[in-house]
Amino acid sequence: MNEEKSPLLVLPKKHENENEHEHEHEHAIAGNEGASFTGSVFNISTSIIGAGIMALPATMKVLGLGVGIGMVVFVAVLTESSLEMLLRFSRVGKSESYGDVMRDAFGGVGKLLLQICILLNNVGTLIVYMIIIGDVLSGTSSSGAHHAGVLEGWFGEHWWNGRTFVLLVTTIVVFAPLACFKRMDSLRYTSALAVALAIIFLIITAGITIIKLFNGSIAMPRLLPNVTDITSVWNLFTVVPVLVTAFICHFNVHTIDNELEDSSLIRPVVQTSLALCSVVYILTSFFGFLLFGESTLDDVLANFDTNLGIPYGSLLNDVVRISYALHLMLVFPILFYPLRLNLDGLLFPSARPLVLDNLRFGLISIGLLLLVFLGANFIPNIWAAFQFTGATATVCIGFIFPAAIALRDRHGIATKKDKILSVFMIALAVFSNMVAIYSDAYALFKKNYPQA
Fold first, then answer.
1. pLDDT computed for residue 73 by the predictor
2. Is the distance from CB of 187 to CB of 41 less than 8 angstroms?
3. Which residues are CB-neighbours of 350 under 8 A, at least 6 positions away?
4. Confidence class of residue 450 from pLDDT cuts 50, 70 and 90?
5. What Cα–Cα distance (Å) separates residue 373 from each residue in 74, 377, 394, 428, 439?
6. Residue 249: alpha-carbon gap to chain centroid
7. Are 340 and 368 in contact, with CB atoms under 8 Å apart?
8. 41 vs 376, which has greater pLDDT?
9. Domain ranges for the chain
């Protein structure tokens, strides 16, 4: 297997005929075995399940349980359609990366736009991950009231369990080693563990909810949105960025496809991953909203800072928060991988493959880790910014760009169904996200200037 097929953004063809020693080096890095079906499912599932799962119960509070679950299924089906079109156009254009498909359809400008969107999306997401990890382990005071972290609750307040030191140790001990892998398939075991930790979170949440249902301390949740005026109607669209972000995995699919032992398996891999993640999302949304009802916070993990009113509630709170902090630590390298490759493609488009240049690989990795670490320490709460990212860069990666590729149809393979679906995806994405941006901006303005 040629390692040039491994990066998300494949480099120019002139590298294909480099000397034999470099090809041997590439084969040594890639290994002789292709990625397995199961390992690929875990890697795509880990690309999908991240911080989005924490915000989904809050979307149920906005949409109601019935409409909310329907929207999760709808976005999953739409995601599968966009990925199917993307992979089909990749095959006919002999493109081995998302960037190549964009370049094939729209030239260098298309590839550049994709790279910028992936940088914005992944940097923002990784900073959010690190902020959540800091909140869980060291606590937060960003909302005005102090919420103690797990380490502070166990050992009291000390310099070594402060936010900056804990995140520094996490970056050096966990993120840096995992960021050193040059093949995504090398992360299959950590990805499997990450999915398992997300399921543990789900099982505990479901268990707590069922216990509280039996003791009669949970009210029946709303099935439909609570629409009272035009503002509440616009508010429904603010969940769109959360739903889109929850299913985004497009920037890793080509890498996983290129590493598969049988590339014809990529569509079943994608479908299995989306089905698995949809089940986890629906059950988490259902039990999370059922458990906390109208008190559900934007980040449901923050709800596990309160008295659950059941035996061993404090212990279960800690298990839930720690399991999800560990999950995010293991998701981190899956999103870091395409971030590094796209930044390298943006800065050094004509250089030799990144996997062959250890100095460049190391410097880019260190620079990005430092950027994310500083962002997580100096930005106390970026959920609003995360919503803006989801409404712009993320929706472009997930829906607008794949639909635009199908409408451009340089190879004449788009069906009438493809074109209708593409127009629908672009129209829905643009309209709903313009409303989401307006609603978020209006809410932010009213918060800062309440008398205006």
1. 93
2. no
3. 12
4. low
5. 35, 6, 22, 35, 30
6. 7
7. yes
8. 41
9. 34-448
SS3 assignment, position 95:
coil
pLDDT tens-digit readout, 141-167? 655 556 667 777 677 777 777 788 989
The sign one gets for the Cα dihedral 189, 190, 191, 192 is positive
Q: Which CATH number fits domain 34-448: 1.10.940.10, 1.20.1250.20, 3.30.930.10, 1.20.1740.10?
A: 1.20.1740.10
Contact assessment for residue 80 and residue 275, using Cβ atoms and an 8 Å cutoff: no
Name the β-bridge partners of 139. 148
Please tell me the predicted confidence (pLDDT) of residue 79.
Answer: 93
Is pLDDT of 20 > 50? no
Closest C-alpha to 190, from 45, 340, 26, 7: 45
Question: What's the pTM?
Answer: 0.81
Q: Let me know: does 96 contact 10? Beta carbons within 8 Å.
A: yes
Q: Which residues contact 252 (CB under 8 A, 6 or more apart)?
A: 8, 43, 44, 47, 184, 334, 337, 338
Among the listed residues 144, 117, 170, the one whose alpha carbon sits nearest the alpha carbon of residue 388:
117
pLDDT-based confidence at residue 127 (cuts at 50, 70, 90): confident
Taking the CA atoms of 347, 352, 355 and 361 in sequence, report the sign of the dihedral they define: negative
